[in-house]
Specification:
globular, 8-stranded parallel beta barrel, alpha/beta, 8 strands, TIM Barrel
């Protein structure tokens, strides 16, 4: 087991380089679609490909990951919605602890159940403080987690939660408004969190245009995740990537 993905995230952060991840839901893509998307991502210089979803009811997670790996050399990181979403063909796994909620199953319970399989997978494990933020609409992740999201205007709650996550030893902090969010995480919340943590900050949910991606990076996000918008219009990959990769390192 190596730490190459995490080292790349740390090195990019140290250099002030912003990163772009495309989120691929195995339930919403065919193997042919995964092949096309991987080719587009390669051409757009996407940094990482996240694979996963809140449910994943299809049975071709392994095949999707394998198809992506055949089509490009972009690191594949699992973004699991349950302990069953593990594929040894990926490069790394976001080992998510829902630190914004109070559901013990998603703080540590499911991790205890999945630990042997995760260890045996050989994947690079990225312990991630996962924080769900109110995106203005009910999302699958808020329903499945049975936990209230952080109110969109409560920057101090997000800031203190992220600080606690870092002090507890998390390697990453992930602010997520959820798939299909009407309102993405605000730049104010991103900036308040970024000023208080030194580990890489991931932001996703409801980011539908390059300008928003750019502003999130400017506010302090290190890695931007886009899923739904690209499912609707894969051509956005090029514009999103360009906007993210030119974003300044300083926090607004």
């Amino acid at each position: 087991m190596t730490n190459s993905v995490y080292h790349s995230l740390l090195n990019k952060k140290a250099r002030g380089q912003k990163s772009f991840a495309v989120l691929i839901d195995p339930d919403k893509i065919s193997l042919e679609g995964a092949d096309r998307l991987a080719a587009l991502a390669h051409d757009a210089k996407v940094d990482y490909l996240f694979v996963g979803g809140s449910l994943v009811i299809s049975n071709h997670l392994d095949k999707v990951v394998q198809q992506i790996k055949k089509s490009c050399d972009i690191p594949v990181i699992l973004f699991p919605g349950s302990p069953s979403q593990i594929s040894c063909f990926a490069d790394a796994l976001l080992y998510l602890s829902l630190i914004s909620g109070r559901n013990p199953e998603l703080l540590i319970g499911q991790h205890v159940i999945s630990a042997p399989a995760v260890r045996q997978s050989g994947l690079e494990i990225l312990s991630t403080g996962y924080m769900v933020v109110d995106g203005g609409a009910p999302t699958t992740v808020s329903y499945i987690s049975n936990a209230l999201p952080i109110p969109a205007d409560k920057q101090e709650i997000a800031m203190c939660t992220a600080m606690a996550g870092e002090m507890l030893g998390m390697k990453l902090i992930y602010l997520d408004a959820g798939s299909g969010a009407k309102r993405p995480v605000s730049e104010e919340m991103i900036a308040s969190v970024a000023r208080q943590v030194s580990i890489p900050l991931i932001v996703g949910g409801g980011i539908s245009d390059p300008e928003k991606a750019y502003l999130n990076c400017k506010a302090g996000a290190d890695l931007i995740v886009v899923g739904n918008a690209i499912e609707k219009d894969p051509r956005l990959i090029l514009e999103m990537s360009a906007a993210i990769h030119i974003a300044p390192a300083n926090i607004a």
